[in-house]
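3.2 Worked example (two chains)
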Amino acid sequence: MAIDVAVARRLFTRQEYHRMAEVGILTGNDRVELIQGEIVTMSPQGRRHRAFIDNLARLLITRLGERAIVSIQMPIVLTEDTEPEPDVQVLRHRTIPYKERDALAEDAFLIIEVAQTSLAYDRSTKLRLYAAAGIPEYWIVDCVTESIEVHRAVHADAYEEVARIAEPTATIAVPAFPDVVLTLAEIFA
């Protein structure tokens, strides 16, 4: 008769996770992020994934100017055991510089994940984490269908407004900066 033994997992804090990098257990070549205490391998980046991140970065940096910081594939602290590295973040300027304190959920106007192979994960795990952290707006850029899911109006750990934008001539604006309008044709060029 087989005995059912529960598998115990060792979960990590952000401090432990960063210490692993400091001592060389994790290196710059490891594409990982800390998600609810687990070290999760990130999907490989394809050519389209990179191209769409580059387009978003260029468009947002140009149109936002000095009003916000556009951060590419850098960590953001959601909780003491969760530090994802979204593809694009639009962050507020703050009195304590980012060189002195990590980017926190409260600093974000917008988080964008570009999904080529990670679409299901971005629509489930990442969506729940960003909503629970109070991120006001979350976009999922689908590389395959060249569409964007826009999640807005976070309330009670969920987004109340969800829209899918798929027409190349369609526009999308960042609510914190209503004059910053992007077309899908520009994003998916």
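3.2.1 Second chain
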Amino acid sequence: MNKDRVLGVFIFIASIAVILAYIWLTFFAPWSYLVIQITATVAIAGVFGILAWIGYTLATPLLPNP
């Protein structure tokens, strides 16, 4: 196999493992509520962090106004 296929297989297997681990953590683990809270916090912080970065980039141009 070439490098791309090996990487693709690795990414596929890792993704399935993460999906199964997340399902177990959210439905069967005793701390599932905490896992959902952390996931939601990371998702919201990620989205609004990107929006803040875009806003900062738009508000501070690279070249000063003449």
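3.3 Remarks
The mean pLDDT is 92.
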